């Protein structure tokens, strides 16, 4: 896979010698890849990412993986409260409303596989910006095909067998299992449900249902976040 270098000045050292153990996926919410690169390389805006993948599959590296890119902002995943120091950020050039082209997904998968192998990052630690910042961020959005990544071992997906029909769900159970999977325990319940559904039930609406609880329970049981890991 060919990777084009376009260095951004917006980076720093990973804090306390941290190394990546997360990958965070974003969309750019801009009109073009060219405009997104300009923004990610502009010192005035103080934002960046390690990589950008264009709609045509071009992969551009903006920040060296060993460095701390400025892509995540406030938020957390499991034990990790300073996500920039513990993550690799990948931006997908997308306006935030459109489907992601097949060629873009193909090259994202190649990039993900290489990064995960390099840093020994398991599929359950490939997350969206909305996962680590419920209510504040919505990318990569409901159009992103998380199930496709899971089929290729590049993310995770809940099992649907033996799931009870939709009905009223128990909010306390949902929040408990969501925290065990990695979502911030102090997130607003409505924002957390929205973030969860955007990724795992993008067409769902309305109040919490039993199926939401069943799906997050399955994820938390199979992929519990390591709460004892360093919090940097």
Describe the protein in words.
The chain is α/β, with parallel strands linked by helices and 232 residues long. The chain contains 8 helices and 8 strands, in the order E-E-E-H-E-E-E-H-E-H-E-H-H-H-H-H. The protein has a 6-stranded mixed sheet. A hairpin with a 5-residue loop joins strand 4 and strand 5. Helix 6 (171-181) packs parallel to helix 8.
Write the layout of secondary structure elements.
Layout: E1 3-5, E2 11-12, E3 22-27, H1 33-40, E4 51-53, E5 59-61, E6 68-69, H2 83-86, E7 87-92, H3 102-119, E8 126-128, H4 129-132, H5 146-151, H6 171-181, H7 189-200, H8 210-222
Parallel strand pairs: 1-5, 3-7, 3-8, 4-7
Antiparallel strand pairs: 2-6, 4-5
CATH architectural name of the largest domain: 3-Layer(aba) Sandwich
Number of helices: 8
Say which CATH homologous superfamily of the largest domain is assigned.
Peptidoglycan recognition protein-like
Query: Over all CA atoms, what is the radius of gyration?
Result: 17 Å
Which spans of ≥5 residues are poorly predicted at pLDDT below 50? none
Q: Major β-sheet, in short?
A: 6 strands, mixed
């Amino acid at each position: 896979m060919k990777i084009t270098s376009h260095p951004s000045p917006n980076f720093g050292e990973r804090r306390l010698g941290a190394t990546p153990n997360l990958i965070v996926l974003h969309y750019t919410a801009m009109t073009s890849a060219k405009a997104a690169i300009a923004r990610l390389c502009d010192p005035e805006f103080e934002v960046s990412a390690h990589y950008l993948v264009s709609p045509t599959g071009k992969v551009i590296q903006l920040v060296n993986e060993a460095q701390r890119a400025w892509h995540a902002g406030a938020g957390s995943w499991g034990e990790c409260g300073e996500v920039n120091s513990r993550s690799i950020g990948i931006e997908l050039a997308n306006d935030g409303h459109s489907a992601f082209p097949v060629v873009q997904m193909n090259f994202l998968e190649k990039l993900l596989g290489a990064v995960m192998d390099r840093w020994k990052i398991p599929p359950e630690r490939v997350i969206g910006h909305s996962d680590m910042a419920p209510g504040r961020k919505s990318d990569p959005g409901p159009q992103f095909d998380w199930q496709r990544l899971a089929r290729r071992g590049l993310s995770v997906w809940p099992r649907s067998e033996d799931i009870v029909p939709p009905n009223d769900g128990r909010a306390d159970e949902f929040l408990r299992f969501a925290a065990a999977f990695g979502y911030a325990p102090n997130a607003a319940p409505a924002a957390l449900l929205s973030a969860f559904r955007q990724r795992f039930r993008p067409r769902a609406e309305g109040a919490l249902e039993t199926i939401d609880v069943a799906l997050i329970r399955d994820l938390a049981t199979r992929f519990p976040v390591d709460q004892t890991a360093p919090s940097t």
